[in-house]
Write a structure and sequence with these properties.
mainly alpha; 71% helix
Length: 114
């Protein structure tokens, strides 16, 4: 069985949960001691910690989606590479048809913009 390591996005999301809780409790205890009202300080600190958790989770989710998109593109290119090698003049001319200039329409579009 192949070992699967978590991607950086998933790791960031997991770290964010613990970091948010730790930061929130630390800030909360500090605020509570400073205000001489531990309950209010911890409550405010946990709100700050929840904001940190949301930030880590959001950025981790974005990273994970980006990794999945890159993997899907790499798999699609890997599957199409053997087929395109025998496609005629694309391999013999040395020109990659995907590298069209900015003024040229791609091979899949009509150039009409629709």
């Amino acid at each position: 069985m192949e070992e699967q390591r978590p991607g950086s996005g998933e790791t960031l999301r997991r770290v964010g949960l613990g970091a948010g809780l730790a930061i929130g409790m630390g800030v909360g205890v500090g605020l509570g001691a400073g205000m001489n009202n531990m309950g209010t300080g911890i409550a405010v600190g946990l709100v700050i910690g929840a904001a940190v958790m949301v930030a880590f989770t959001y950025s981790g989710t974005r990273m994970q989606r980006e990794e999945q998109r890159r993997r899907a593109e790499a798999e699609a290119e890997g599957e199409s590479a053997p087929d395109s090698a025998g496609a005629g003049d694309a391999g013999s001319s040395g020109h990659d048809p995907r590298e069209d200039g900015p003024g040229q329409a791609s091979s899949g579009s009509s150039g009409t913009g629709a």
